[in-house]
């Protein structure tokens, strides 16, 4: 089990596959996170500024752009309070992992994703819940 619940953590979930999106949303919400969903990279980028997530969980293969594009675009658009970025993909080979890490993702999960692993990664990357209530804990661009 993950170390703590995800209460107070905002997650932006970008996934075009309905079944995966619903599974990830339900799992994260049951762990206490507030989850906003998007079905593509452009929608995810738009919601990034509105939702101000602590963690973005994105599929790599999206219908309009890929998850690496989303990461690079988010990092270029958000000068401070950067969310942690997680890529999930069925293409979990070393080349793809390296490409995603080079694009700036903080974690990489191969599909099928174990729900506990997903929650553990989000918990590890999210700021402490106590610091969330004080407005502290978001990551800042270097």
Short recap of the structure:
The protein contains 6 helices and 5 strands; from the N terminus they run βαβαβαβαβαα.
What does the radius of gyration come to? 14 Å
Order of helices and strands: EHEHEHEHEHH
CATH topology term of the domain at 30-128: Rossmann fold
Taking strands numbered 1, 2, ... along the chain, how are they ordered across the largest sheet?
Answer: 2-1-3-4-5
Overall 3D form: globular
Regions with pLDDT < 50 over 5+ consecutive residues? Answer: 130-142
Strand content: 15-25%
Q: Tally the helices.
A: 6
Helical content band: 40-55%
Would you tell me the structural class of the helices and strands?
A: alpha/beta
On the 0-100 scale, what is the average pLDDT?
A: 87
**Largest beta-sheet details:** 5 strands, parallel
| CATH C-level category of the domain at 30-128 | Alpha Beta
Please give the alpha-carbon distance between the first and last residues: 32 Å
* CATH H-level superfamily title of the domain at 30-128: Response regulator
Number of extended strands: 5
Report the CATH architecture of the domain at 30-128.
Answer: 3-Layer(aba) Sandwich
């Amino acid at each position: 089990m993950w170390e703590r619940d995800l209460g107070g953590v905002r997650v932006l979930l970008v996934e075009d596959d309905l079944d995966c999106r619903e599974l990830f949303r339900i799992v994260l919400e049951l762990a206490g996170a507030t989850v906003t969903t998007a079905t593509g990279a452009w929608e995810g980028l738009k919601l990034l500024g509105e939702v101000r997530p602590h963690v973005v969980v994105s599929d790599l293969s999206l219908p309009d752009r890929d998850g690496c594009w989303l990461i690079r675009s988010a990092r270029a658009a958000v000068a401070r309070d950067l969310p942690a970025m997680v890529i999930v993909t069925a293409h979990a080979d070393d080349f793809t992992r390296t490409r995603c890490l080079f694009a700036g993702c903080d974690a990489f999960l191969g599909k099928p994703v174990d729900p506990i692993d997903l929650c553990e990664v989000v918990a590890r990357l999210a700021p402490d819940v106590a610091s969330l209530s004080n407005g502290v804990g978001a990551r800042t661009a270097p």
